[in-house]
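Predict the 3D structure for this chain.
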Amino acid sequence: MAPTVRGIEFLWYIPNQAEPGHRGDDVADDHNSLATLTRHAEALEAHGWGGALLGTGWGRPDTFTVAAALAARTSTFQPLIAVRPGYWQPAHFASAAATLDHLTQGRVLVNIVSGKDDLAAYGDGEGDQSQRYARTKEFLRIVRKLWTGQDVTYQGEYFGVTGSTLAQRPVVRDGRRHPRLYFGGASAAAEEVAASEADVQLFWGEPLDGVAERIERLEELGEKLGREHAPLEYGLRVTTVVRDTTDRAWADAEAKVERMANGSIARTSDWSAATGQQRLFDLAARGDVLDDNLYTAPGRFGGAGAGTTWLVGSAEDVARSLRKYRALGISHFVLSDTPYLPEIERQGDQLLPLLRQ
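Done. Predicted structure below.
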């Protein structure tokens, strides 16, 4: 069954990092100050982006706090707020997100993260993969019920609420009942959660054949599990190296990989245990460049997550590749490159107009 394709969305990534220089970003003493992060959010508004993903993890500044501060200083910027079950209790998070959604007139987006973190540091317990995703499933169910219902009672294995009603609800308009719930993960346990409970499944930068295979599997799984929500939508989180010419883009991409190889750019955190990450690492065995311009070499020299594979080329080259993902059913794009602020402007002005044609 083909996926349902709705309106297209273009988001960026704001490096919510305690240390400067993330993925080779320009190093600045105030890299994570409110003034600097606000410049990113304002540039996103000015150059055609819908908003940005804000990463989460115990070693980072609190994501929700940063998102709330940036939303207060902007008018259209939508924060895609990454959150972890266990760091948040579902009722607490549902209330916080509904309040921020109300205050921003419906600009909140949510990315649920279930991968391993420094759980003991914030008082959480470590479970195996099946337990982590079973807990995530309960978290999503309770949050959605609290956003849409009243006097909610739900008792699960990991979370529960009794007679719970939020004081303030998310904004409802034009078919939107609550903030959109994004989710990632490539394991069988993760795909069951996505197929039954998420609104958007996010993929990292896999080749087209891998994405097509996963979409087909998720569509079939949703039918098998009796999905009760609107059809699952799909998104792509990938690094896009865009320059004025194809040759310039490849020269810059190869130079950056060389800096990664010699240690000039710090390695990204090791996510090698994650199924989705291992899928990306395995791509290098198929070649340094897959499809037209999917560059796999960064993964061999410290690139991880969305920085493992890069789409490289002129704006026309990268737009052509992203349209192919669009044809598969991808309707949410979360892009980025470093240095972050100049690339917001370059890709907003050069790439987005081509994708909106």
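DSSP finds eleven helices and 13 strands in the chain.
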